[in-house]
């Protein structure tokens, strides 16, 4: 399962809760080996270089997730390929679904939704990263593009509006959707 959505909508919190409930591994992208370079890439790379960095990190994430799944594991990903695709599409990069079709695909993609003002307030409280600031003016467009892309790309997905629900209730809704 992959949790997707614009910044500040609760992906990380929900990933940890779901992993605990499901006996799964909480997996954050990009993989650890990319974390050190991420700050510099977010600050200085062109949009195309930025895309290639994150696309390649998803390729490596897919390899790591594959190993976890082969050993009978379950994985809840805090972002996956739809984030890379959507963010960079909104940033004006020519992205292609085909670049992501050879990687392991989520059983279910969960798009988390939350109103713009609440998301921005959360991002401010936690401290905005260079990556957050890079796309701050595009957050509304990014949030809408997740749903549009999931439909157009024929991805199995649900939308969970986290606005008035506790993280626990959101997790219950997602677990119910997995069972159907």
Automatic annotation (TrEMBL):
Pfam families: Thymidylate_kin (PF02223). Keywords: ATP-binding, Nucleotide-binding. This is Thymidylate kinase-like domain-containing protein. The keyword Nucleotide-binding applies. Belongs to the thymidylate kinase family. GO terms for cellular component: cytoplasm. One of its GO terms (biological process) is dTTP biosynthetic process. It comes from Candidatus Jorgensenbacteria bacterium GWC1_48_12.
């Amino acid at each position: 399962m992959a949790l997707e959505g614009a910044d500040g909508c609760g992906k990380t919190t929900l990933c940890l809760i779901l992993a605990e409930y499901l006996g799964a591994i909480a997996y954050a992208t990009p993989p650890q080996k990319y974390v050190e370079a991420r700050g510099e890439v977010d600050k200085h790379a062109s949009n195309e270089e930025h895309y290639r960095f994150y696309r390649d990190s998803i390729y490596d994430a897919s390899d790591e997730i594959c190993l976890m799944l082969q050993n009978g594991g379950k994985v809840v990903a805090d972002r996956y390929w739809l984030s890379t695709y959507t963010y960079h599409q909104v940033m004006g990069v020519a992205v292609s679904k085909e670049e992501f079709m050879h990687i392991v695909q989520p059983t279910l993609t969960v798009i988390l939704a939350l109103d713009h003002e609440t998301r921005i307030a959360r991002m401010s409280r936690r401290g905005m990263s260079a990556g957050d600031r890079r796309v701050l003016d595009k957050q509304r467009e990014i949030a809408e593009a997740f749903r549009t892309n999931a439909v157009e790309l024929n991805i199995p997905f649900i939308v969970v509006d986290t606005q008035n629900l506790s993280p626990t209730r959101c997790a219950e809704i997602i677990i119910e959707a997995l069972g159907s």
